[in-house]
Amino acid sequence: MAKAEETHHASRITSQLSISVVLPAYNEEENVGQAVRSVLEVMEPLTPDYEVIVVDDGSRDRTSEVVEELAKSYPQVRLIRHEVNRGYGGALNSGFQAATRELIFFTSSDNQYDVAEVKKLLPHIETTELVIGYRAKRQDPFIRRFFAWGWTTLVNLLFGYVSRDIDCAFKLFKREVVSQVPITSKGAMIDTEFLVGAKRRGFSITEVPVSHFPRLAGEQTGANIRVILRAFRDLFRFRLQLWREAD
What is the pTM of this model? Predict the structure, then answer.
């Protein structure tokens, strides 16, 4: 595609863009302000029809206060606060259910992704229902990369090919997908449940490489052994549930 055609194509997409951006956050007071500002900087020139939904999942720090201060200056910013921690899946699901725009995009609030790369996903949403990123070069400690490889391999064995990077927190999809794919997971299983559910209902999925950066502030929770064990427990329960439904 010639450069002029690419520009025209991108302009046509963004002129019709209606998008909710969901940012789950747990104890991210050092990161969430920059994360929200990055989203605002990217979305403002793309479309007037957007919202930024931050879900504070029971943080014990000033995450909510930081978001509330930004919301005073930017009416597009909305805060949803869980009084107690519900888990990553619970936070995302709250954001999905609160979303009011035609498209939903979610990413993490730890600034490990370049929000501007949502523009790489947008052209594909015209021909597919879900556009999901995969980390071209993951910048996490070895133990997290090892667990992620094992998890993705296992999921693809149990359900058939789903994704090369299931838990990549950089996904764009049409809101109709959420309305048709039930989500029950409260933890790290949510990406698997969501993608497998979408696949089983005939929704198409396109994968796009995205950048990934080291975490510079705050603490990761994904490598917590309790989180990992709960995810494996939920995974096998989900697999058994689908087998029962197929009988």
Answer: 0.88
